[in-house]
């Protein structure tokens, strides 16, 4: 039951991330991806630092900035580039490749065995996301494809390394360190690459508060808690809940249509997530004791 609770709680994070598509398109000013990413990460990280009152030791600074770059700075920038240059379905399908990448990276960096069931679950999940989101008018852009694959690789690397490097602090402190580091990396990029934001409306501020407090601070604390307790492959499969929730919100809030093929894709994704949790559960280790030899 403890593992089931950990899975359900960790799944809340990508489910909430699915709302980011709706919030960004409906409530945030357009064409400021790096600035919005910085404003999402840095205030959330500073807030959590104030709550936890925990700073990373000097020996951990390199790891923290690397993790903050993989999990936030590089990942979010590449995600926005892919979203701008590709249809949303293609970008999301490329993002779902991270589950397969996690399996391979965990083998190399953590020594986790490659399980056939986990590979099959990841592959079927990618297929389900494609059914769910890719339409007949999908076009392919080389830069967008490279950004989508790079974003998936960045998230996969951050996921595995966050499990490999576990500091002796609570998950909330670990989240604060990474969000702050990622925000500090994003801030100069935003100042260099993008013009100043226009005056923000109440709707803009509400959307930013949701992305920062809920979509970053709260959900990533849950995510890193799950990474500390579950196999990285199991956690990465849960990320496929994000596009499913995005489609459900688009249908419920924006009145977007939901086809039979999309319903099939959602069912495949949910089934793959369930299968991935079973395949990535190593189960209890059985030991066989041998009787001592008589003296």
TrEMBL record:
Name of one Pfam family that matches: EamA
Compartments (UniProt record): Membrane
Membrane topology term: Multi-pass membrane protein
Spans through the membrane: 32-52, 64-84, 90-110, 117-136, 142-162, 174-193, 205-223, 235-254
Signal peptide from the UniProt entry: none
Keywords of this entry: Membrane, Transmembrane, Transmembrane helix
Residue intervals of the EamA domain: 7-133, 144-274
GO cellular component: membrane
InterPro entries reported in the protein's UniProt record: AA-Vitamin_Transporters, EamA_dom, EmrE-like
Domain of life: Bacteria
Keyword Transmembrane helix: yes
Chief location: membrane
Family statement drawn from the similarity comment of this UniProt entry: Belongs to the EamA transporter family.
PANTHER family the UniProt entry points to: EAMA DOMAIN-CONTAINING PROTEIN, INNER MEMBRANE TRANSPORTER
Official protein name in the record: Probable blue pigment (Indigoidine) exporter
Native species: Maricaulis salignorans
């Amino acid at each position: 039951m403890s593992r089931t609770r950990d899975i359900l709680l960790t799944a809340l994070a990508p489910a909430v991330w699915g709302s980011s598509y709706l919030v960004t398109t409906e409530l945030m000013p357009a064409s400021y991806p790096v600035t919005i990413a910085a404003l999402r990460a840095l205030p959330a990280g500073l807030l959590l630092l104030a709550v936890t009152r925990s700073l990373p030791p000097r020996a951990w600074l390199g790891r923290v900035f690397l993790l903050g770059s993989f999990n936030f700075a590089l990942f979010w920038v590449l995600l926005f580039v892919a979203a701008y240059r590709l249809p949303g379905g293609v970008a999301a399908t490329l993002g779902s490749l991270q589950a397969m990448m996690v399996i391979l990276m965990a083998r190399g960096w953590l020594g986790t065995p490659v399980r056939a069931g986990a590979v099959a679950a990841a592959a079927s999940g990618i297929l389900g996301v494609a059914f769910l989101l890719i339409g007949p008018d999908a076009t392919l852009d080389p830069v967008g494809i490279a950004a989508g694959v790079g974003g998936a690789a960045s998230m996969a690397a951050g996921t595995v390394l966050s499990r490999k490097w576990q500091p002796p602090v609570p998950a909330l402190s670990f989240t604060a360190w990474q969000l702050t580091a990622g925000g500090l990396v994003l801030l100069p990029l935003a100042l260099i690459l993008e013009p100043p934001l226009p005056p923000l409306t109440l709707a803009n501020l509400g959307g930013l508060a949701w992305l920062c407090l809920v979509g970053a601070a709260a959900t990533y604390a849950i995510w890193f808690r799950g990474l500390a307790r579950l196999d990285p492959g199991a956690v990465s499969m849960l990320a496929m809940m994000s596009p499913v929730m995005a489609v459900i919100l688009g249908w419920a809030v924006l009145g977007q249509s939901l086809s039979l093929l999309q319903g099939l894709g959602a069912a495949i994704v949910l089934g793959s997530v369930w299968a991935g949790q079973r395949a990535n559960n190593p189960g209890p280790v059985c030991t066989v004791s041998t009787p001592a030899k008589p003296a």
